Amino acid sequence: MATTAITVRVDADIARRLDKLAKATRRSRSFLAAEAIEEYLSIQEWQVQAIRKGLEEAEKGRVMDLSEVKARWEKRLEDSTD
């Protein structure tokens, strides 16, 4: 996979923590930063997709009122303790 260099400014404390972890894991700061960014992007992309899907469902009228949501969760809790 091709890579591209980027520059990121972080607090001094974050840089120290990154250095400490890099030393402990015998990985480079670049490797750890790239891993952290990849993980962050995966989570954010998933959340954006879930929000979009929820908005589409709401626009189609596929929603529940709060009392129905509560009832379903209470049943789920009750079923899980049996």
Describe this structure in words.
- With 82 residues, this protein is an all-alpha fold.
- The protein has one domain.
- Helix content is 73%, strand content 0%.
- It contains three helices and no strands.
- The longest helix has 31 residues.
- The mean pLDDT is 96.
What's the average pLDDT? Answer: 96
* Residues in helices, as a percent range: over 70%
Structural class, by secondary structure, is: mainly alpha
Report the sheet-strand fraction: under 5%
> How large is the count of helical segments?
3
The overall strand count is 0
Residue stretches low in confidence (pLDDT < 50, at least 5 long) are none
Let me know the largest β-sheet: none
Task: Compute the number of structural domains.
Answer: 1
The geometry reads as elongated
The value of Rg in angstroms is 21 Å
Query: Helix and strand string, N-terminal first?
Result: HHH
End-to-end separation: 50 Å
List the helices and strands and how they pair.
Elements lengths: L11 H14 L3 H31 L6 H15 L2
Summarize this entry quickly.
This protein is mainly α and 82 residues long.
Q: What attributes does this structure have?
A:
82 residues; 0% strand
